[in-house]
Amino acid sequence: MRSPHDVVVIGAGVVGAACAYYATLAGLRPAVVDRGPVAGGTTGAGEGNLLVSDKEPGPELDLALLSTRLWRELAATLGDAVEYEPKGGLVVAAHPAGLEPLRRFAAGQAAAGVDCAEVKGDELAALEPHLAPGLAGGFHYPQDAQVQPALAAAHLLRAARARGAEVFLGEEVTAVRTRADGSVLGVTTDRRRLDAPAVVNAAGTWGGELARLAGVDLPVLPRRGFVLVTEPLPRIVRHKVYAADYVADVASGSAALQTSAVVEGTPAGPVLIGASRERVGFDRTLAPEVLRRLAEGAAALFPVLREVTVQRAYRGFRPYLPDHLPAIGADPRVPGLYHACGHEGAGIGLAPATGLLIAGQLTGAAPELDLTPMRPDRFADRHPAEGAR
Amino acid sequence: MPTSPSDRYDLAVVGAGPGGLAAAVTAADHGLTVALVDAGPRPGGQFYRHPAPALGAARPERLHHGWSVFAALTARLRAHTAHHRITHLAGHHVWTAERADGWRLHATTGPGPDDAAVVEAAAVLLATGAYERQLPFPGWTLPGVVTAGGAQAMLKSSLVLPGRRIVLAGSGPLLLAAASSLVTAGAEVPAIVEAADYLGYARGLPVLLGNPAKLAEGAGHGATLLRHGVRLLRGSAVTEAHGTDRVTAVTVARLDRRWRPVPGTERRIACDAVAVGHGLVPQIELATELGAATRATPDGTAALAVDGEQRTSVDGLWAAGETCGVGGADLAVAEGVLAAYAVAGRPAPAGVRRRRDRRRAFAELMAAAHRPGPDWTGWLTPETEVCRCEEVPVRAVREAVAELGARDARSVKLLTRAGMGWCQGRMCGPAVACLAGDGKVGADSRPLACPVPLGQLARRTGPDAD
Q1: CA B199 to the chain's CA centroid
Q2: What is the largest CA-CA distance in chain A?
Q3: How many domains are there within chain B?
Q4: Closest by alpha carbon to A56, among A105, A117, A13, A4?
Q5: Cβ contact (<8 Å) for B400 and A154?
Q6: Which value does ipTM take for this structure?
Q7: CATH class of the domain defined by A7-48+149-220+323-374
Q8: pTM here?
């Protein structure tokens, strides 16, 4: 029997959902497989940031700008369902010395197509009335937005299903099958065989494991983060507000604990407080010192938060690659194998662009942007493939 | 006596209910320095909850079984605190247990930024008890519908009844105990509506005969209830509560073996209060966040897995009482004593061990009899609220599962907010897990065991704190 699927997407997080969605838009019939539920991994542990503000000019910013446009299109139909909020970002510097690097950073971004505007210290209160007084100033990024990430994945996947995608949740992929010539034949799960000429690795933090199943090496590693969630509050934080050191932390490769204050409100009321970055493997243990730094940073930006109650905390693991760029596109080592993983903390934002680019490759359409920097085999020299045939 | 965070206790016991009290005094008997860390204002936990002295209750023991055991434990506690062998830290809500050359417990004691405490200890024993399992039904959010344990707690602590004519409903021995207390305090109980058929008990006759005290306790409730003319309706459930401002009546229906309501068997019972509960769920997040192994109990909850000396799978972490599977105060006391001996490195008396084994076997038998049938969801309507904190109806949960790809309580929470509110899923978690349909018994993830003021989280603690 001929396979009913054109592509098997592994992973029902936001990236897998977007890959499936754009594949159906391109006329393909995908199957989506995940060993857990929708948004069971990093997607479900994220804040749902769609950011351009934290990205320096380069391939990731290009991806983010494309995604910004695509999210705006998606919002026309899915906006309310996924709690899309084009609320804008605000990066603040406490001291005048901290403003100069922000200016240089913003100038580069503006040249690459980012909307941003400097906000003087005495203008900050108009944008964020509860910000601590006396901050030196900052930059406003109107393109920054937010979605509720689990809803985003679920509704993208539902839209894909409505267009013919088949979804197999609670099924673990146990093998990626290949022909004698090495090209992809499909996958085997613990319940069935799914045949297709293409397989997309959208397994997030487990993308490295999945790559190994397919016989190639992709060094995806987890970077732990904690988020504090306050009790529901009136809208006291309007933008995504973060301190200037956040950008440096995002780009850093350090294993040591890094925290920088990132504070934002949500439509449901709770304020989300991040962001910490640690390379500790998949250790799930709560770290009070991390929580302390997050709380301290948030209270420094918004003193009023000192009086509120933190209702819960959660942790997640960002999937990252050594150069902090995702792997997107065909893997020349295994014909028919595609990767769409390693988005670190930016997967929600970068998902639509990733899905569109993967769909484009699957159908041979002209790419919207150059995928060379995101080549999945770019680490092959540094990390000889384990188990490659 | 350790007085600052840098001083370390030999043992920190979390929870001052029967198990925690017994563990603390036994450990202190053997010369250990003990911190007894408890959220409540007075020792006793939920079971020995009693009025504040200011209420001037003449005979609080009237509402309690085993009051003499509690009186003896508190007398020993007083003696040990007087000699600084036990430090009783009341009003301390522990939000996390941190590994730090032994343990560092972080607790909140109030809303202010300095209402925080850190307790350091070489070993930790969790006796954090359990909370009630609720299965929603149409009308359960009406005023006058309370939890069975809540009704008993109100009575024990404030001498207040939730109504005059109270229907008890749900499943488990707590219903009988609560009904017995309520009628003793003057309430009318027109019916106890028990979903199980109790046939499960018959299969464990040898275990029953090995626990004469538990049988006598049950018989005691039975005699009280008989005297007050309380009807026990077995194999039945309250499938709807009626009323506008307040509950005025309930519909009771018979259940089939899978707990599906049998059409045509409905009857109405007038009442002004309903006390409901489906047994108890072990409160174990402090341990599971540390990776402690759990086991599925016969009534479908997750409890801590412990060895013969009450050790969890986490080094230096012990557990006693309901955290190891719900089994009542006697069992908790026996386990607390055993754990204390083990922490002190002494061999425990064989009698205590035997008592623990018998009670544990009895608890497992009861649990099996009261496990919710798989089709209880048959009494829900699409509009029935499942999560009361976030006001999430059954319809939304079912849509998340059928349309959006949720498969477990966590993914339902992410997609509907069910379980994201103040109670963190303690009220709706079991029901959501059933509706999500994965049928798996697992511990809920709650990295913070209770809400914590942000100002306290931001506080510097530990050896280098000022």
Answers
A1: 25
A2: 70
A3: 3
A4: A105
A5: yes
A6: 0.89
A7: alpha beta
A8: 0.91
